[in-house]
Amino acid sequence: MNNKTVLTAYQHTAVQCSTPLGLIILLYDGALAALRVALELMESGEIEQRSDAIDKARRIITELQCSLDTEAGGGFADRLMALYGYMYRRLIEADLSDDAGKLSEVIRLLEGLADAWRQAEAKSAEAVGSGGADRASAAEVVGDGIGVAADDDQAVLRRPFVGAA
Hints:
By secondary structure, the protein is mainly α.
């Protein structure tokens, strides 16, 4: 078995065994990895490969948008949807204008959101271990970063279709 086959099998298992929050985190990690590669390619002048990496990040952001349940998630989901839309537009602008600053801005935004989702996942795991007391929802943890909160992470998230990323 070659390294690519092993990596693909590992990634498939990670997706299949993940919680909804875990899948969201995998999407963030994928977008961040693609944008870091795009930044390196931008610096080395490899335009076509850079555009491909930025396109991968845009597809992942689209998947993040599709994973939101705006009816149940209310203001929190609406704010995340707007933020994802902003990041998507900034990536188009970065690609068209070869602007590393715009790429870096989106990376910073995604890093902040990914960290918040990781905290939510950790709090959720702690709550499961302690019988559910003091459970903070993902929306509460992430919502702190964008000024809103919802009642339940399941009200914000639908299971993403990670195969598209």
